[in-house]
Amino acid sequence: MRLRNTIIALFATTLAVALIVRFDRQGPPYFTSPRTPFDHYFPDDRQHPTTAVVVLCQRAAPRLPRGASVMLLKSSPESTIYATATGILSRQRVVAPPLGGEGRSLPDFVVTIGETLDHPSYAPVEVFPEGTLYRRAQ
Q1: What is the pLDDT of residues 85-121, one digit of tens each?
Q2: Which pLDDT tens digit goes with each residue over 40-63?
Q3: String of DSSP letters for 83-106
Q4: Helices (H), 27-137
Q5: Cα–Cα distance between 71 and 82 in angstroms, integer?
Q6: Residue pair 131/115 in contact by the 8 Å Cβ criterion
Q7: Which stretches within the chain are classed as H helix?
Q8: Against a cut of 0.90, is the pTM above it?
Q9: Calpha distance 118→89 (Å, rounded)
Q10: Which ranges constitute the DSSP H helices of 27-50?
């Protein structure tokens, strides 16, 4: 009985080591911390459409004052952008596009995703790989 348990333990340990080696050779996300939850499902070169929004909001959040109004703009609007930004930028007030719509005031900050903003009321604050943060001129 003791020999049987030893053989089973050795076999299980061998399989566990083989699995760890396999995961290590495959690369992320197994032994590295992912940037976003979507990296678990898209570990290769493909990217979930919301990944850029999550990373950009995380980078812009420390530069935004508490209570500031923020709008995220992307050339191809998605329904997830507003909800994602609202969740990540919980200390700011996220407003939905369009920019300067009927009877609406302009937000304090605009974050563009993968594009530039040509609006006379805004000046760039910082450029990130995913997009740009703009501040409204006073």
Answers
A1: 999 999 999 988 777 666 678 899 999 988 888 888 8
A2: 666 566 777 788 889 899 999 999
A3: HHHHHH-TTSEEEPSSTT-TT-PP
A4: 51-60, 79-88
A5: 8
A6: yes
A7: 2-26, 51-60, 79-88
A8: no
A9: 24
A10: none
